[in-house]
Known about the structure:
Number of strands: 6
Radius of gyration: 23 Å
Strand content: 5-15%
Oligomer: single chain
Number of domains: 2
Shape: elongated
Helix content: 25-40%
Strand order of the largest sheet: 2-1-3-4-6-5
CATH architecture of the largest domain: 3-Layer(aba) Sandwich
Largest sheet: 6 strands, mixed
CATH class of the largest domain: Alpha Beta
Amino acid sequence: MLKLSSGASEYPALMHEASFEKMRAFRDQYLMGHAGVLRILDVGSRSEQGGRSYRDLFEAPTFEYTGLDLESGPNVDLVPADPFDWMEIPTNSFDAVVSGQTFEHNPYVWITSAEIARVLRPGGHVAIVAPSKGPIHCCPLDCWRFYPDSWAALCAYVGLELLEVFSESGSWRFVMPSLVWGDIMMVGSKPHLKDEVESKAFYSRLEAIVATGTTLPTPSVGPGKAGLEYEQTHILPARSMIWHLGNVMTRAHPHLKERWPFYAIRLRLANRNGRLAIERGAARRAIHD
């Protein structure tokens, strides 16, 4: 799926299987069995030509699906004039909003979250799938990785109720493709506003959040003098990398300690190399001073 703006990417923006199956679980547990047709908005819906999309999960007559993205293309029904102010969409007009492989590319996720809260009907649900890790893949921006408390913060900010957060465990028992992204799925809902005063305060706050929008940022620059200074000062010599790798792996996976030969020796050597790196940095600073 292409997000926010199309562009060349080292990692093609495709709907991966784990994301699709998480959204299927959301549909089955929260949306099936409701009376009438449910209106679904997919934020960041553009897909590769002939590729899979969430539209396959929300078919008529049970659902009425609308795909939103920033430019026209496959699986796109609506292109808003302003990417962060969806004036074309009336308030309280969708029963559910879904989004996958989008929020990591969105520089202003709090604004999009506010618009999601606005267009949802009271009691409506939102489900978002986004990575918690994985390589940089620009489309043309790659801004964020998400953790469970990311969703608690966003929901609190825009007034949504957070119902659940599922984090990919990475267990060897999972056989789904694309676990490299460590996807997190959140499910939230829009509260029922009890009176006109509460309703006015809710929508006024959302309007104020949306009003903070500005132009899309340009992609970030690479490292400069500070980054190169750090790297040249503290990079480990090649002969130390084997010992350092052993230390990193056993810290990340404590159960390997018993299996990793000479763990204590490797740990001491890695710590020594760390001290040497710090000393090299101090020596370089002394020259500058």
